[in-house]
Amino acid sequence: MARGGREGSDGADAPAADESDEVTELAAELRRLLLVSSRILRSHTASEEVSASQFSVLAFLQRSGTSTPGALADFEHVSPPVMTRILGRLEEAGLVRRSAHPGDGRQVQVTLTDSGEQVVLQGRAERDAWLRRRLQAAGPQERRTLREATALLRRTLVERRE
Q: What gap in Å lies between CA 113 and CA 87, rounded to an integer?
């Protein structure tokens, strides 16, 4: 019998209970760490002018070019009325522009203004600067370990999408 496993009825090794407990604990700790780190990074883009959720909408538009309020609501996991309020505030601030959809006059198309683009670029620069400062405080070996962990997280969480 292999170490750490128990033999199943077909002779193959089945995972031991401690391995299952270890994976469960690791998943919980990783979930907590990812949520906290995500909140911290988001807080470095929020300001008095733009909330974290508003910044997320701006960043989505910066990546996609244009979108509809419905697609933005789906992406942000909010109701259409909530997205309408978010877009109203962003439009009042001059960060987005709403116009008639070229293919369907009943729809609205949302795009970033130049000011909105600048807010996204500045927010990303602030997050990157904060993260750089944190990484510079780590030693060379810790940075190597983080680089390896980043590659492992990418392979485990991103590339193997189900």
A: 13
Confidence of residue 141 (pLDDT cuts 50, 70, 90): very high
d(CA 72, CA 61) in angstroms, rounded, equals: 9
0.85 exceeded by pTM: no
Helix (H), strand (E), coil (C) string for 119-134: HHHHHHHHHHHHHHHH
User: Cα dihedral sign for 71, 60, 115, 50?
Assistant: positive
Contact 132, 44 (CB under 8 A): no
**Proportion of the chain in helix, strand, coil states, percent, rounded to 5:** 65, 10, 25
Dist CA 56 CA 73 (whole Å): 11
- What digits encode the pLDDT tens for the residues 34-54? 999 988 888 887 677 898 889
φ, ψ of residue 64 to 5 degrees: the values are -90, -25
> Coil, helix or strand for 5?
strand
Q: What is the pLDDT of residue 107?
A: 84
- Residue of 61, 53, 54 whose CA lies nearest to 90: 54
